[in-house]
Amino acid sequence: MNCALSAARAPTRGRAHVVRARATARRIVEGGAFRGDGGAGPSAGERWLHSCAYDDGARGSGNAETWVRVGHNQHMHFAMSQLGATG
């Protein structure tokens, strides 16, 4: 399975980290590996990534815990939708 978030490191500190983290989110969302809704509707993780990428979400860009939670949410949503497609 392809995991778009495992290939990205979003900065959570330092100068202009919000701008750089949002650029990372945009690369994930616009990349060919982004799973989108997987045919089962977008997960909370996918919605958060889209909001972070295009500045229509929270003011910041999340902390390390947020990025890990979003990545796990997106991955589990995709895995479950694939299992449902095989059944």
Please provide a written account of the structure.
With 87 residues, the protein is mainly α. It is 54% helix and 0% strand. It is elongated and about 45 Å long. The N terminus is likely disordered.
Give the structure's gist in a few sentences.
With 87 residues, the chain is mainly alpha-helical. It is built from 3 helices and no strands. It has helices at 17-30, 44-53, 64-86.
For the sheet with most strands, the description reads: none
Percentage of helical residues?
A: 40-55%
Count of helix runs: 3
Q: Which percent band covers the strand fraction? A: under 5%
pLDDT < 50 stretches: 1-6
Strand-pairing-aware structural class: mainly alpha
**What coarse outline follows from CA principal-axis ratios?**
elongated
The mean pLDDT is: 74
Distance between the termini: 18 Å
Computed CA radius of gyration, to the nearest angstrom: 13 Å
Number of strands: 0
String of helices and strands: HHH
